[in-house]
Write a structure and sequence with these properties.
The protein has about 230 residues and is of the alpha/beta class. It has a single domain, classed as Aldolase class I (TIM Barrel), CATH 3.20.20.70. Helices cover about 35% and strands about 20% of the residues. It is built from seven helices and eight strands. Strands 1-2-3-4-5-6-7-8 form an eight-stranded parallel barrel, surrounded by six helices. Helix 6 packs across helix 7. The longest helix has 18 residues. The model has no long low-confidence stretch (mean pLDDT about 90).
Length: about 230
């Protein structure tokens, strides 16, 4: 169990009409990592934000940016996101023929490398890849379908992955992405997740700012973890 589980914040949680204000408020507090899914509309439904917006946010440097590529050819975009100043770049394992080369290229470009799996894809797809990854994203729901519930078996996937990483003595972190409540986040943390992605658009507790919403989620998570 991790008592210091980190939170990242989906870029979709920010009010785009007050973007500078939202980013400044986040940076003034415990600045989170900002998570942005970018799809090609083929591997996953068209979601995410444009490269110019991501570049502008990444170059502020006060909130590190994590880009998750949901596309069939992530290698074509590695250099571009590195030039933008992204902190972490994650690619899906499923569509890439030589995924270990992709993860190596991401590291060589100066970013942290992430490997992601959709629900229902066996964890064995990660075999012999974990040493190339700085983090593994466990998707709790199919990407591009925000109304989907957390997939059955997601908690078991986190537990098994944590055991495998410990057995192999590897330091890759586990991040869970999906429509996650504070109660579910606490359970994921106890099972070995290092980071939980928060999407305020699927939370029931509406807040005026992203910073306020993130703080409320953090406090609710801490309460749930103290009860376990």
């Amino acid at each position: 169990m991790s008592s210091d589980v980190a939170l990242s914040l989906s870029l979709d949680s920010l009010n785009i009409l007050r973007l500078e204000e939202e980013l400044s408020a986040l940076a003034a507090g415990d600045a989170p990592e900002l998570y942005c899914a970018v799809s090609d509309g083929v591997f996953a439904p068209l979601v995410g934000h444009g490269p110019h917006l991501i570049k502008g946010i990444a170059q502020r440097r006060d909130c590190p940016v994590h880009v998750h590529l949901l596309c069939n050819d992530p290698d074509a975009h590695i250099d571009r996101f590195a030039e933008m100043g992204c902190h972490t770049l994650t690619v899906q394992v499923e569509p890439v023929t030589h995924i270990h080369r992709s993860l190596t290229r991401i590291r060589e470009a100066g970013m942290h490398a992430g490997a992601a799996l959709k629900p229902g894809v066996p964890l064995t797809r990660l075999e012999y890849l974990l040493e190339y990854a700085d983090r593994v994203l466990v998707l709790a729901a199919d990407p591009g379908f925000p109304d989907s519930p957390v997939a059955v078996g997601t908690h078991d996937r986190v537990r098994i992955l944590r055991q495998n990483l410990d057995h192999l003595e590897l330091k890759a972190g586990i991040e869970v992405v999906g429509p996650i409540t504070p109660l579910q986040a606490a359970r994921f943390a106890h099972l070995g997740a290092h980071r939980i992605n928060v999407d305020l658009t699927v939370q029931e507790d509406a807040c005026s700012t992203a910073a306020e919403g993130l703080q409320r989620f953090r406090e609710a998570l801490q309460r749930q973890m103290s009860l376990a």
